Amino acid sequence: MLTDLAPVDLRSREPISSEITRRLLDYLLSGAVQPGGRLPSERKLAESLGVGRSHVRQAIKSLTVLGLIDVRQGDGTYLKRTDSPLLPLAVEWGLLLGSKRVADLIEARYHLEIVLAGLAAERRDEAALAEMRRCLETMARKPGTDEFVAADLGFHLQISEAAGNRSLVQVMASIRTLLQVWISRVAYTPGTAPATATEHVAVFEAIERGDAAGAREAMATHMAGAAARLRQTLAERGEGTDDDGLAIPGRT
Predict the structure, then answer these.
(1) Measured between alpha carbons, how far apart are the two ends of the chain, in Å?
(2) pLDDT value at position 65?
(3) Chain centre to alpha carbon of residue 170
(4) Contact, 146 vs 207, CB < 8 A?
(5) CA torsion through residues 32, 146, 167, 106, sign
(6) What is the pLDDT along the chain (252 residues), one digit of tens a residue?
(7) Domain spanning 90-236: CATH 1.20.120.530
(8) Most buried residue, 75, 91, 112, 155, by CB count within 10 Å?
(9) Do 90 and 185 meet the contact criterion of CB atoms below 8 Å apart?
(10) Which residues are CB-neighbours of 242 under 8 A, at least 6 positions away?
(11) Distance, CA of 227 to CA of 223 (rounded, Å)
(12) Residue 113: which residues within 8 A CB-CB, separation 6 or more?
């Protein structure tokens, strides 16, 4: 019931977007809406929270990216069923809400992706390369769009597949939604797409020519750039990260 959804405290130091998302998350996990059930309208949610509909819309978009809810055009917004393969784990809310877990994610992804890039360069086949090319072409055509985000994520997942190590593929798949949130946080920021695309091309070219060392180096450069863009985006939104002790080689 909407009586469970208290108004947002606009005087709070927490960013409004984060607080609204957290309130909606608490509301959904409280059992007020059953899996597969329909959420109240944006208007009703906005009235209960005491905020504008645009803020509610942004929070819904974030929860959609995380895979918790499903927006059906012309029908409404529904809580996904518990068997949804993208239903996020607790740590995944951390990135969305500006948690201190961001530093751990950056470090873990840095090392994982470098290993995968090197293996992909040694084991890739033409089918894998063709899929990577397709992702790069989409990124070049669709900067700052949902298609760009999907292609960026697809590129990294294809590298993990090309690496040919099922254990590492499963690790990558387990953080798929996390990566989508990370990429989404940055991809819609004006001016970030060119650098991201350029870094991806360098990784691809090294994998294509079978240069494992070059692929690892190019991926390290990309991960450092991606981490810097994520930190900058979070800082600009007032969601700074506590990255003390973060072991990323080459950082100053």
Answers:
(1) 50
(2) 64
(3) 17
(4) no
(5) negative
(6) 455 676 666 555 456 776 787 788 778 766 788 888 999 999 999 999 999 998 898 888 877 765 678 889 889 999 876 555 444 444 444 545 455 556 666 777 888 999 999 999 999 999 999 999 999 999 999 998 989 999 999 999 999 999 998 888 877 876 776 777 778 878 888 889 999 999 999 999 999 999 999 999 999 999 999 988 888 877 776 554 444 433 444 343
(7) yes
(8) 155
(9) no
(10) 100, 102, 103
(11) 6
(12) 156, 159, 219, 222, 223
**CATH number, domain 2-79:** 1.10.10.10
Query: CA nearest 63: which of 33, 37, 87?
Result: 87
Please provide residue 71's backbone torsions phi and psi, each rounded to the nearest 5 degrees: -95, 120
Domain segments of the chain: what residues?
2-79, 90-236
Query: What is the residue-wise DSSP string for the chain?
Result: -GGGSPPP-TT-SS-HHHHHHHHHHHHHHTTSS-TTPBPPPHHHHHHHHTS-HHHHHHHHHHHHHTTSEEEETTTEEEEPPTT-TTPPPHHHHHHHTT-THHHHHHHHHHHHHHHHHHHHHHH--HHHHHHHHHHHHHHHHSTTSHHHHHHHHHHHHHHHHHHT-HHHHHHHHHTHHHHHHHHHHHHTSTT-HHHHHHHHHHHHHHHHTT-HHHHHHHHHHHHHHHHHHHHHHHHHTT-----TT---TT--
Whether residue 144 contacts residue 170, with contact meaning beta carbons closer than 8 Å, is answered with: no
